[in-house]
Specification:
heterodimer; A: 250 residues; alpha/beta; Rossmann fold; four-stranded antiparallel sheet; 12 strands; B: 437 residues; ten-stranded mixed sheet; 10 helices; 20 strands; 23% helix; 38% strand; globular; nucleotide-binding (chain A); ATP hydrolysis activity (chain A); AAA+_ATPase (chain A); FeS-cluster_ATPase_SufC (chain A); ATP-binding (chain A)
């Protein structure tokens, strides 16, 4: 589904990603772990199409086609979804109106008619129940005054509504208490299928107890320095990132 | 001959043809003297530094329309709010149109200023309120001298007008250049309530210059909501002078939606003459091309324990220009005042500009006054967030701009009007954002 080949990217002359290779197949869950500043969020932004980052080398293939030249919205239309580490507050646009616009814009790009209002309402009801979201919450301005947990739940709610093929969850566990973590993870797990894939970007192993990955990759200084199964996350938790770094310099 | 000279020389003929009480003639004579002395303001006046009336005062204006000005309702229906029942006071080229209007004298008076100025039964109210609230400055005085017609709304004690009132001024363009000077008087006595929607609309591209004056009196505990829709054609210019006298515990809101017109200047003056007043001043400006919108506000806190809330948002494209000059005066006696003022602007084009100037003159020591002003571009992070969810750049921008303006709409109390304004905004932004509101 996703194939990243020798990806080099940076911002304003600063190299951040220095040759990333990653292959994610449908049905898989990959975790990317790494210390602060290793390039985790840059990687997710570059895949989602944030224009501030300049790709200086390599390629990103989605379903065997390069998406480097595509705008962020075109990538979204193809089925790429990024759950933000810091979701942006948009006062004046309700959660419902935002998600309706997003869904219908995506449908328009595919040559489809707007989703009938009754289907939309039904879907909103189902998915908000899945994430234990109160109906009142949906009429509030997007992310404005939301707690950290509400913001993240709202991200996963949007993911549930948009049904992406590839979901990248950037530090979705940060700022979550244990209950919110359970709800969010539960939501993600229910959305997993053999047809879609998830990349979980996280600093800590904690989230991976709930969303169990098939593969774990360790990102240090813009490179994937170690890959393995889910047990690698536990090892990292126990020994810390310095262990990987030490191994590298050894 | 300059426009000023033309107006001065037309004044006598104008008065001779007007059948008015002597006291009104005296008011008008006094007013024309003020205009004669001061003339049209120039950019040398501190209050007019960023708005020049030069191009406006050049054409040779007709002061009355000579042609047959009949228009069909079906041709102008779209300029009315039609999905709710309203009273309507409609003027065509400054002349009252009875067939487009719906007035009343049932418990409240919703009718014509010309009737009120000439008929004895209104004399008592006219003597107390007409030209008493208005500032004695040049443009208002010019209007006072020439004004014959406009809306007269009188709401007696503890009465509420049962539906909103639309005041609509059409100009047909039958004259190449037309100058109009409508005059409105709105009196809400103690505990009375009224909602007014005002619109100026030209029907073709000929030049029209409107110098409008509205006086609003809000008695004790009265509530007045006034909405101005300024979405006129490219050669229509408007100077709106609104003067508001608030008595104890009254609440007055003025919302100004400026979406079009060549030059629009809003002189909005609130005088808080009683305690526990609340004054609400809100505006959304969305303009393009070479359009110019200037908001000049004054809130004069003359009594303690009052509030004022000013919130103006502007979106400027192309070479359009905006001005916000918001003055708050707090007299020494006016303790415990909460005065808020905010002016936020988005410049879409490099060539658009906004001059924003808050002015606070505070003579009391126990007050809370805040003011804030921002000028910026659209939030790129927010735009990326939306694009990453599949919302294209054009729709994303529209959504952000809509969101930016939205909190000003929240205080609009007439849902159908709110929906109409939302549609106008979507229309201005060139996108159908398809919200249900």
């Amino acid at each position: 589904m996703l194939e990243i080949k020798n990806l080099n990217a940076g911002i304003e002359d600063k190299d951040i990603l220095k040759g990333i290779d990653l292959k994610v197949n449908a049905g898989e869950v990959h975790a990317i772990m790494g210390p602060n500043g290793s390039g985790k969020s840059t990687l997710s932004s570059v895949v989602a199409g944030k224009e501030e980052y300049e790709v200086t080398g390599g390629d990103i293939l989605f379903e065997n086609e390069s998406i480097l030249e595509l705008d962020a919205e075109e990538r979204a239309h193809k089925g790429v979804f990024l759950s933000f580490q810091y979701p942006v507050e948009i006062p004046g646009v309700s959660v419902t109106n935002f998600i309706k616009t997003a869904i219908n814009e995506t449908r328009k790009a595919k040559g489809l008619e707007d989703m009938p209002a009754s289907d939309m309402l039904k879907m909103i009801r189902e998915k908000s129940e899945l994430l234990e979201i109160d109906r009142k919450f949906l009429s509030r301005s997007l992310n404005e005054g939301f707690s950290g947990g509400e913001k993240k739940r709202n991200e996963i709610f949007q993911m549930a509504m948009l049904e992406p093929k590839l979901a990248i969850l950037d530090e979705t566990d940060s700022g979550l208490d244990i209950d919110a973590l359970r709800i969010v993870s539960n939501g993600v797990n229910k959305l997993r299928s053999k047809d879609n894939a998830v990349i979980v970007i996280t600093h800590y192993q904690r989230l991976l107890e709930y969303i169990v990955p098939d593969f774990v990759h360790v990102l240090v200084d813009g490179k994937i320095v170690k890959s393995g199964g889910k047990e690698l996350a536990l090892e990292l938790e126990e020994k810390g990132y310095d262990w990987v770094k030490a191994e590298l310099t050894a | 001959m300059s426009l000023k000279d033309k107006l001065l020389s037309s004044y006598l003929t104008f008065q001779e043809n007007t059948d008015l009480d002597n006291s009104i003639h005296d008011i008008k004579d006094e007013a024309i003297k003020i205009f004669e002395e001061h003339g049209f303001p120039t950019r040398k006046d501190e209050n007019w530094k960023y708005t020049s009336l030069n191009s406006l005062t050049k054409p040779d204006y007709s002061l009355v329309s000579h042609a047959d000005d009949a228009i069909e309702f079906k041709d102008v229906k779209k300029y009315f709010l039609n999905d709710i029942d309203t009273y309507k006071i409609v003027f065509i080229d400054g002349v009252y149109s009875s067939y487009l209007s719906e007035t009343t004298h049932d418990g409240v008076d919703v009718c014509l200023l010309s009737s009120a100025l000439t008929k004895p039964k209104f004399k008592q109210v006219i003597d107390v309120y007409f030209n008493k609230i208005a500032k004695k400055e040049s443009l208002t005085a010019l209007n006072t001298a020439f004004a014959k017609e406009g809306a007269y709304i009188y709401v007696p004690k503890s009465r509420a007008v049962n539906k909103p009132i639309q005041i609509v001024h059409f100009s047909t363009g039958n004259e190449a250049n037309l100058m109009l000077q409508p005059r409105n008087l709105i009196v809400a006595e103690e505990n009375a309530e009224v909602q007014v929607i005002e619109r100026h609309q030209s029907l073709n591209s000929n030049a029209v210059f409107t110098n409008s004056v509205t006086e609003i009196y809000a008695g004790k505990h009265a509530r007045v909501d006034y909405y101005k829709i300024q979405n006129d054609k490219e050669n229509a210019s408007l100077i709106d002078n609104t003067h508001i006298d608030q008595q104890e515990s009254s609440e007055v809101s003025v919302h100004t939606f400026s979406f079009g017109g060549k030059l629009t200047r809003n002189n909005l003056n609130f005088y808080q003459n009683g305690e526990h007043n609340n004054s609400i001043l809100k505006g959304v400006t969305i303009i393009e091309d070479k359009q110019h919108v200037d908001h000049n506000t004054l809130v004069h806190h003359k009594q303690p324990n009052c509030e004022s809330h000013q919130d103006y948002k502007g979106i400027f494209d192309d070479k359009s220009t905006g001005v916000f000059n918001g003055k708050v005066v707090v007299d020494a006696i006016a303790q415990k005042i909460n005065a808020y003022q905010s002016n936020n602007n988005i410049l879409i084009s490099d060539k658009a500009s906004i001059n924003s100037k808050p002015q606070l003159e505070i003579f009391a020591d126990d007050v809370r006054c805040s003011h804030g002003c921002t000028i910026g571009q659209l939030d790129e992070d927010a735009l990326f967030y939306m694009r990453s969810r599949g919302i294209g750049i054009k729709e994303g921008r529209a959504l952000l701009m809509y969101a930016f303006a939205n909190n000003v709409l929240e205080s609009v109390k007439i849902p159908q009007l709110k929906a109409r304004i939302t549609n106008l905004i979507a229309d201005k932004l060139g996108v159908n954002i398809g919200f249900d509101l």
